[in-house]
């Protein structure tokens, strides 16, 4: 006979993902890819890609560095700025400039063309750039819906104080401790921007069955890995947890900035090529044809 359900179970650490080196996106974004569906596939669904740009110092210039006109179809790009300024324009008329603490949540869906550059003032003054671009997949039923753009300012993102001055959680999407984040998502997704220091064991409740990834950007964190073990993560390292279980445990933290990502897996085939992520190879061929024939629009 099985015993009654024990106290809430902890999600075990599956693996620590690390960057395999830096590459440039255009001439503006020195990026480390911390995870990608290209090798992890459905194990990280609904997330597809995590690019960490910087921290990198840029000298003043009259020319805005960045990446010129390119398309996307089938998913969302989420840009979170920690330092510096990013300007964006797209063919659906969306656009804007975001700075530290701000987020742009762009739904490419059926397709658009956009460009991403350093902000004009930031480029002229120079300074430290640090940002994350996360790709979130869309379920098949929403891949061909119209593009949309959510510009979320720092002041719109609620910050929840953890007890005993252990830190704060900024709720970008989903909910934390009953507090709801401003981003509208197509499937259940939590994006929590976490600052932790002086932690003496703190648990984060994350729904059973959700893909769970803890990305450390700065500082360090010690997490319980299961079976009484623990693991220390430093900058640009991501803990990937077993979806089974109701919480993760952080044992200690030193000035840590981290993103805690969780979401309900989208259980559908993932077929991607460059800026397109669909469900089949024929849909990718169609995306390429639609882009080349101008159906995803043009920059004004
Ligand atoms: Mn892009």
Major β-sheet profile? 9 strands, antiparallel
Overall body shape = globular
What distance lies between the first and last C-alpha atoms, to the nearest angstrom? Answer: 68 Å
Number of strands: 24
Radius of gyration: 19 Å
Q: What oligomeric state best describes the polypeptide chains here? A: single chain
Helical residue percent band: under 10%
Strand-residue proportion: over 45%
Structural class: mainly beta
Mean pLDDT, as a whole number? 94
> What are the distinct ligands in this entry?
manganese (II) ion
Poorly predicted spans = 1-6
SSE arrangement, N to C = EEEHEEEEEEEHEEEEEEEEEEEEEEH
Report the total helices: 3
Give me some keywords for this one:
300 residues, mainly beta, nine-stranded antiparallel sheet, seven-stranded antiparallel sheet, globular, disordered N terminus, binds manganese (II) ion
How would you describe this protein?
With 300 residues, this protein is mostly beta strands. The chain has 3 helices and 24 strands. Strands 1, 13, 14, 17, 18, 19, 20, 21 and 22 form a 9-stranded antiparallel β-sheet that branches. Strand 19 and strand 20 (229-233) form a beta hairpin. The radius of gyration is 19 Å and the shape is globular. The termini are far apart. The relative contact order is 0.21. The model is unreliable at 1-6 (pLDDT under 50). Manganese (II) ion binds next to strand 5 and strand 10.
């Amino acid at each position: 006979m099985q015993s009654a359900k024990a106290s809430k179970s902890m999600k075990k650490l599956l693996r620590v993902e690390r960057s395999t080196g830096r590459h440039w996106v255009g001439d503006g974004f020195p990026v480390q890819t911390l995870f990608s569906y290209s090798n992890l596939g459905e194990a990280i669904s609904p997330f597809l890609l995590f690019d960490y740009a910087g921290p990198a110092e840029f000298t003043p210039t009259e020319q805005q560095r960045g990446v010129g006109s390119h398309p996307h179809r089938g998913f969302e790009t989420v840009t979170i700025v920690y330092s510096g300024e990013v300007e964006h324009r797209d063919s659906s008329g969306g656009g804007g400039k975001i700075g530290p603490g701000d987020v742009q949540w762009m739904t490419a869906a059926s397709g658009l063309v956009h460009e991403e550059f350093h902000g004009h003032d930031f480029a002229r003054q120079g300074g430290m750039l640090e940002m994350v671009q996360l790709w979130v997949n869309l379920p098949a039923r929403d891949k061909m819906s119209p593009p949309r753009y959510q510009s979320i300012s720092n002041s719109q993102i609620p910050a929840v104080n953890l007890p005993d001055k252990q830190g704060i959680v900024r709720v970008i999407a989903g909910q934390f401790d009953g507090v709801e984040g401003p981003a509208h998502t197509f499937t259940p997704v939590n994006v929590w921007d976490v600052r932790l220091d002086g932690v003496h064991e703190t648990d984060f409740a994350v729904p059973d069955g959700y893909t769970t990834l803890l990305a450390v950007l700065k500082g360090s964190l010690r997490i319980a890995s299961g079976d009484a073990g623990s693991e220390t993560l430093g900058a640009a390292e991501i803990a990937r947890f077993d979806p089974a279980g109701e919480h993760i445990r952080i044992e200690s933290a030193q000035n840590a900035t981290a993103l805690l990502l969780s979401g309900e897996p989208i259980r559908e085939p993932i077929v991607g090529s460059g800026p397109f992520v669909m469900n089949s190879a024929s849909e990718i061929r169609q995306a390429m044809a639609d882009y080349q024939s101008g159906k995803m629009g043009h920059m004004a």
